[in-house]
Amino acid sequence: MRAAAEEGDAQAQCYLGVCFQNGQGVKQDFAEAIKWFRRSADQNDPVAQCYLGVSYITGAGVPQEYTEAARWLREAAEQGDPAAQFNLGMLYETGQGVPLNYPEALKWYQEAAERGYPSAQFNLGVFYESGQVVEQDFTEAVQWYRAAAEQECAPAQCNLGLCYQTGRGVEQNTQEAVKWFIRAARQGDKTAQHNLGVHYASLEVPEEEL
Fold first, then answer.
1. Domain spans of the chain?
2. What is the pLDDT of residues 152-171, one digit of tens each?
3. Contact residues for 194 (Cβ-Cβ < 8 A; gap 6+)
């Protein structure tokens, strides 16, 4: 792979960067990872552009620089990379490296969500549930929470459970709510763990056990 990367293969350069970033088969070296991501990104590889953008967000191997992060994420997002679309949406939602712009954040979440990216599906569900930017629509929120929840996105599982518990967007169903709380709680979601605790505490002890 290194030979292919040194000969200019963009995909090999990107994958080699990932190996250095994660310490897979080589000693972890963020600076070396950035070197290969940049070579690949300069050849317009969207995955490398996304990795480079995220590196600027986290400050791994480069100084933390949100404007530069946004530049590379946009390059990848416009080529349809869902991870880049999600992260660019996050920057617009928080106003880091770009002007704060909720409609623009929603646009990129929608793009990534439709490509099956679970974190974007969850964020899109939050927009619909809260009625921020879009008209409040609990049914639509549930649709996106479910799509993310089925991909084991714990916050989406928790929120889907809340929808079943309260009957927002779906028919109220405590058993279904508990099912999703359990799935989220097993992944360490603290809100789901709390909700489960409240649920079990509220259960009445059967008379025969008194």
1. 1-108, 116-203
2. 999 999 999 999 999 999 99
3. none
